[in-house]
């Protein structure tokens, strides 16, 4: 007997959709996808990235350490360890992105989760500059937000890049023309990611000569992008399992 009941089709999770779109855009720009373990060693999560045991920058990340503690294993606090692993086992020129899940031991609220997704990127070549980084990001955000985007840099600090910058992208909703814009609040710019030129000491640790090779790296929160794209005001909704959200996509 043929059922006349309408099939209930599944829906792509909005985070999965955003990751796929980001991977496709960077793929068109020549970036391959790299992956690595979520249970990471202290060496790759911190030491290889210019964050030694006594470095104050370790205070920037609250870490889930796994038992037994003497093994010094942890749930990775960012996807940057994959960049170190990849550079260690591959010779430049390199061009990769790393989408993946990361963990922070912190309280949750509308904009913070204990587990979330990041996408990081790395390019290493002989004549890479901040101008190349800016050009790549401008193309990426223009394609992602489907409107001509501008990018601006503000000075910042990250232990594994020098110089380091905070990256703002022009508002894809109002371009700064609406004081009540839900996305930029009328400022015209959206704080979106951190980036910079790869610290020479990081290159030295993976046996890449910083006198010959230069690189840029960037990292962004995928939930942050999804919240902006879809007008979601609480990051916890993405991991709630609430079908009222998922069924909209």
TrEMBL record:
<dbReference type="GO" id="GO:0000049">
    <property type="term" value="F:tRNA binding"/>
</dbReference>
<dbReference type="GO" id="GO:0005524">
    <property type="term" value="F:ATP binding"/>
</dbReference>
<keyword id="KW-0547">Nucleotide-binding</keyword>
<feature type="domain" description="Aminoacyl-transfer RNA synthetases class-II family profile">
    <location>
        <begin position="16"/>
        <end position="228"/>
    </location>
</feature>
<keyword id="KW-0067">ATP-binding</keyword>
<keyword id="KW-0648">Protein biosynthesis</keyword>
<dbReference type="InterPro" id="IPR004529">
    <property type="entry name" value="Phe-tRNA-synth_IIc_asu"/>
</dbReference>
<keyword id="KW-0460">Magnesium</keyword>
<dbReference type="GO" id="GO:0005737">
    <property type="term" value="C:cytoplasm"/>
</dbReference>
<keyword id="KW-0030">Aminoacyl-tRNA synthetase</keyword>
<keyword id="KW-0436">Ligase</keyword>
<keyword id="KW-0479">Metal-binding</keyword>
<dbReference type="GO" id="GO:0006432">
    <property type="term" value="P:phenylalanyl-tRNA aminoacylation"/>
</dbReference>
<dbReference type="InterPro" id="IPR006195">
    <property type="entry name" value="aa-tRNA-synth_II"/>
</dbReference>
<dbReference type="GO" id="GO:0046872">
    <property type="term" value="F:metal ion binding"/>
</dbReference>
<dbReference type="InterPro" id="IPR045864">
    <property type="entry name" value="aa-tRNA-synth_II/BPL/LPL"/>
</dbReference>
<dbReference type="InterPro" id="IPR002319">
    <property type="entry name" value="Phenylalanyl-tRNA_Synthase"/>
</dbReference>
<keyword id="KW-0963">Cytoplasm</keyword>
<dbReference type="GO" id="GO:0004826">
    <property type="term" value="F:phenylalanine-tRNA ligase activity"/>
</dbReference>
<protein>
    <recommendedName>
        <fullName>phenylalanine--tRNA ligase</fullName>
        <ecNumber>6.1.1.20</ecNumber>
    </recommendedName>
</protein>
<dbReference type="Pfam" id="PF01409">
    <property type="entry name" value="tRNA-synt_2d"/>
</dbReference>
């Amino acid at each position: 007997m043929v059922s006349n009941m309408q099939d209930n089709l599944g829906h792509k999770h909005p985070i999965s959709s955003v990751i796929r779109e980001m991977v496709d855009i960077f793929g068109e720009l020549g970036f391959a996808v790299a992956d690595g373990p979520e249970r990471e060693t202290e060496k790759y999560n911190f030491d290889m990235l210019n964050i030694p045991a006594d470095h104050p920058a370790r205070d920037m990340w609250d870490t889930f350490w796994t038992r037994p503690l003497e093994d010094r294993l942890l749930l990775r606090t960012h996807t940057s360890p994959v960049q170190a692993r990849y550079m260690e086992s591959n010779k430049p020129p390199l061009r990769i992105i790393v989408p993946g899940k990361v963990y922070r031991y912190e309280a949750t609220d509308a904009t913070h989760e204990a587990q979330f997704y990041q996408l990081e990127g790395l390019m290493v070549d002989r004549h890479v500059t901040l101008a190349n980084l800016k050009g790549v990001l401008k193309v990426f955000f223009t394609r992602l937000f489907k409107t001509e985007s501008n990018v601006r840099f503000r000075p910042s600090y990250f232990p594994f890049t020098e110089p380091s910058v905070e990256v703002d992208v022009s508002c894809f909703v109002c371009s700064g023309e609406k004081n009540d814009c839900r996305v930029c609040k009328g400022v015209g710019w959206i704080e979106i990611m951190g980036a910079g030129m790869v610290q020479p000491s990081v290159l030295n640790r993976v046996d890449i000569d910083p006198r010959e090779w230069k690189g840029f790296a960037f990292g962004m929160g995928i939930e942050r992008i999804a919240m902006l794209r879809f007008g979601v005001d609480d990051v916890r909704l993405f991991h709630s399992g609430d079908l009222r959200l998922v069924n909209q996509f």
